[in-house]
Each structure stands twice: as C-alpha cells, then as structure tokens.
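input
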Amino acid sequence: MLFPQRFLDALVHGEADLAFRRRTKPAARTGGSQRTAAGVVEFVAVEVVALTEISAEAARRAGYSSRASLLAELERRSGEIYRVQVRLAGADPRVALRERAPIPAELTEIRARLDRFDSASTHGAWTLAVLRLIAENPGEPAACLAELRGRETRLFKVDVRKLKELGLTESLAVGYRLSARGEAVLAALG
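output
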C-alpha cells in the first residue's frame, strides 16, 4: 500500500489509524506490515466494507477532512472497499542498521550476499561498482547513475534497493548516498 506523506504525518501524531482502499483484491492483510518513510506500519485489521459503513469519523481517522472527500477518492477506482486499521509499529530497522559499521562476521555475510547478487545477475557483477558509483556521485538522480552504468533506470533502482535492504545505501530527496555501513563495507571490500 502506498501512503501519502500527509497520512504518515497524521499517523505519527496519533491523528490517523485507518486507511481505505478500493481494489479488486486486497493490498494488505491482517498481521502484515510495510516499511514507510515514517517507520514500520502494521496492518492490524483488514476488512471489506460498504460505502454506507464509512462514517465522517472514520474518514477523519483516515486523514480526510470530510466523508465526502474520502468517498470522492474511492469513487475513482473500482472493486471492493477495504478498511485497513493501521498502527505505527516502530522505526524502520534499516535506519539503525545503516548507521552501524559491520562487525567482521557481518562483513563476511554481506560479502556473501553481494557475491550472490553478482552471480545471479544477468548483467554481470554490479554490486561494488554501484556502491562506488553512489559514493562518487551522492545525490545524483537515479536516471543519471543508471545511464552511467548503461542500465534502464527502473532496473538500476531494483539493484539499489537490494543494497538498501542490507543497510548500505539510503535514498535522498534526489538520488542516493552510501550509509556509514555502506562506506565501511566499500572500504573493506572495494
């Protein structure tokens, strides 16, 4: 599920705890979670509801100024309406991870993961080259970095997300930079 920043801000301040989505199939399931810019959002309950079951209070709890504005948004799509009760479950664990340099055992594990990424790649070894590229061009738009690598932007971003999962990179408003962990890994392996 995608959450607009206004909703995430309201969630953080305790002003929102519901989301409504109209879909042909649910985008969330009870007990699931998702990392967002605000932290980990847990899906406490997911259920199908009728339009008539959506109150003005529920719309407010979903971050809308009125029931009418929520209904107008829902009318733009087809499918069933899902009411998703959410809660902020904590910080994104990647944030703490990327601030910490790896201990030797972790460095061995990271190297093994990078080797697996490289060996499974259809476009050759890329992990250390992409880490170097980001280190040399912090804040450069992804499209420019992708072009320097001779990759389609969408596919380049998939590669960078793999590095981000390991806590090695972080997204900026535009582009990326290496995290402290990424800098330590690149220094040790590169």
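quick obs: DSSP finds nine helices and six strands in the chain.
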